[in-house]
Amino acid sequence: MPGPDLPARRVALVCLTPRPDAQELGSLRLPSFGIRRIQAALLSDPDLADAQVALIDRREDDVAGYVEEILAFAPDLVGFSVYVWSAPTLIAVARGLRARRPALAIVFGGPSARSAFFDLDPYRPAHAYLDALCEGDGEEIIRDIAKLPAFSRAAWESVRGLTLPTEAGWIRTPPRPQIAALDRIASPYAHGLMPQGGVAYLETFRGCPLSCRFCEWGSKENTKAAFSADYIAAELDAFRQHEAPAVFLLDAGLNLNMGAFRNLRLANQRSGFLKEALFWAEIYPSVVRDEHLAFIEEIGTAYLGVGMQSMDPAVLRLHDRPSDSPRFEAAVRALARVTNIELQIIAVLPGDTPEGFRRTLDYALSLPASVRVYHCLVLPDALLTRSRPEWSIDFDPVTLTMRSCAGWSEEAVAQVRAELRGRALAAGGKAGEFWWSFPRQEERPSLHRSWRQAAAR
C-alpha cells in the first residue's frame, strides 16, 4: 500500500506493435492488447487513482524516438511488454533510458520476458538496464510495483512473482498464486482503451492443458479457471461498441477448456456479436465435439487454425505432443464442412527431417483446408528452455529462428525454405519471412495411408 506522502506515480507503458508481415491482412488493424491489459489494471485500482499512465507505442524501430518520448513524460516507472519482434528494439530503449536516467525503475513483462531470453548474448548483462522481470500474468504484479514506496532492491524483493537480475545471476521472489478468479482482471474495452475499428481480442481462459516443447503456451497451471459468461458477454457487447470487424480468440484452443467454451457459447447467445464479425481461433483437432461444430455453425463466419505440426507420431512424441491420426483427419473433414480452416505445420522441427516434413506438407495439402507452414522458432517457455541436449539446436539469438538441429543441416534448412517460397507462390499463396501459406486446393485423395507407409520405411 502506498504511504500518505507518496507522490502520484507516473507510469509509462511501452510496446511496439508490428506491421503485418507481407500485408496479408489488408486494411485490418491489430492493436496491441497485452499492454492495455496492464494499463486497465492500473487505471482500475482505486489505490492508484492519482497515478498518471501513458501508453507509448511508436510502431517502428525508432530507439531514439522512444527514449525521447518516454523521458518527456518524466515517468517514475517504465513497464515494457516484449515479444520476439519487439525485444531487440525495446531492450535498446531500456539501455538508452538507463544511460540517461540511471535511477529510473524499469520492469519487463510479456511472452519474451524470461530470464533465459535475457541471458542470450545480445541482451547480457540484464542487470545493467532492468530492475525486474514479470515472468507470468502481470495485471496484479504491476499494481504492487506501482504502490512501492521506493524502487530499492529491498522493495523489489518484497513483490511476489518477480525475477530480479544481479551481477551473479537471477534471484526469484516468492512465487505468486496465479489469478484464479479471472473476472477480476480489468478489461481494456470496458475502460475505453482499445482503438475504434480495430480487431478485438478475447480471452475465455489462460494457460494450456498441453505442454508441447515447441509451443510457448507450455503451462498446465490454472487451465480450469475461466472467464464467466457474464464477463465474456460484456466483452462482446464492447466489441460491438468499438465496431470491431473481427474477433481473435487468444486462448490456446477453442476446445481445450470446456467450461470456458460453454461460457463463450452462452455469452454469444446473449450478445450475438460473433454473428456480426469474423471469428478467428485455434482449435485442437482430436477433441472436436458436436457442440463445437454447432457453435461454429451458429456464428457463421469463422476461420479456425488447426495445429498439425507433423504427421509423424514419433516426432510428435519427442515434443510431448499428443497425436491421434485417425481422429485428426475425421475432425479436419468435419470442420471443413462448416467453416474455413487452416492446417498449421512446422518446418525445421528437431527430430524431424526434410523428407518427413515434405511428406507432412503433401498430406496437409491433400486435405480440404488451406495450409500454413511456420519456420521453427526457439521460443522462451518452449525450446529455449525445454529442448533436449541431443537435438543440438543452433538458432539466431535475435530472431530466434532455428538454423540447424537434429535432422536438419543449415543447407537443408535453406533448401526447404526456398522450396516453400516457390511452391507457395506457384500455388497462389504468400510467403513471409518465417511463414508460407497455401490456399485450399481442389481436394485430392488422402495421402494419409501412403504417408504412414513411407514413414514406416
Name given to the CATH architecture of the largest domain: Alpha-Beta Barrel
Please mark out the parts with pLDDT under 50 across 5 or more consecutive residues, or reply none.
443-457
Number of helices: 15
For the biggest β-sheet, the strand order reads: 8-9-10-11-12-13-17-16
- Ends distance: 65 Å
User: Strand content of the residues, in percent?
Assistant: 15-25%
Number of domains: 2
Question: Class by helix and strand content?
Answer: alpha/beta
Mean pLDDT over the residues = 92
Outline the biggest β-sheet: 8 strands, mixed
Helix content: 25-40%
Number of strands: 17
Q: Give the C-level CATH assignment of the largest domain.
A: Alpha Beta
**CATH fold name of the largest domain, please?**
TIM Barrel
The best one-word shape is globular
Give an account of the 3D structure.
The protein folds into 2 domains: 162 residues, 3-Layer(aba) Sandwich (Rossmann fold), CATH 3.40.50; 268 residues, Alpha-Beta Barrel (TIM Barrel). It has 15 helices and 17 strands. Strand 14 and strand 15 form a beta hairpin. The longest helix has 17 residues.
